[in-house]
Amino acid sequence: MGRHKSRGIRAHQVRPRFGGVGRDAPPRAERLSDELRLGASRSVVRRRRIAGLTLVSALAYGVVGAYQFGLAPAVPEPPLPLFDADRVDASGEAYAVLDTPDAALGLTSAGITLVLAGMSGERRRAERPWLTLLFTGKVAADAAGAAYLFAEQATRHRRLCSWCTLAAVANIAALPIALAEARAALGALRGRGARTARSGGE
């Protein structure tokens, strides 16, 4: 078991005392709750940071989405000549993929990244290294997509959406953290392969 924060609610302390409609809470789910919220292992801290950066990008996409769906008349942003989110986010290319606002796609993608960040506990990279590698691939795809959209705005409009730029910075900042976790997972895979080879040769 990894290190944990000294303070915080433990999942077993808040088990429902009454019957009723709802989901069961098996021990593994309670353990996952404790590890993700209170764990202090290097693996969990890295995933927590990536989750935080992903939530920043989701917030940015939410602001843009409010404008793209007509809920807000304009996108609030700093009054700098470089920024013109209203123009950029109203353009046709922002609605071209799947015939829907690209902020909705960004929110969906962020949700998938968060799901992958939260799957499994502190020993994920040792016990399920493939999941860590899949997660890293998704974070890399997020970073690549953010860089592409930034380049599209900069070259085609000569203006940037400040919220999209914030999302891009958050997504790109998450990549080196994910790569560090992937290296640890690859090390676990190599160690597992070496142990298998030794046991097979005995």
TrEMBL record:
Residues 50-178 form the Vitamin K epoxide reductase domain. It is a multi-pass membrane protein. Residues 1-15 have a biased composition (Basic residues). One of its GO terms (molecular function) is quinone binding. It holds the Pfam family VKOR. Its main location: membrane. The keyword DNA-binding does not apply. The chain crosses the membrane at residues 50-70, 103-119. Signal peptide: none annotated. Keywords: Disulfide bond, Membrane, Oxidoreductase, Quinone, Redox-active center, Transmembrane, Transmembrane helix. It comes from the Bacteria. The keyword Transmembrane helix applies. GO terms for cellular component: membrane. Residues 1-26 are annotated as: Disordered. Belongs to the VKOR family. This is Putative membrane protein.
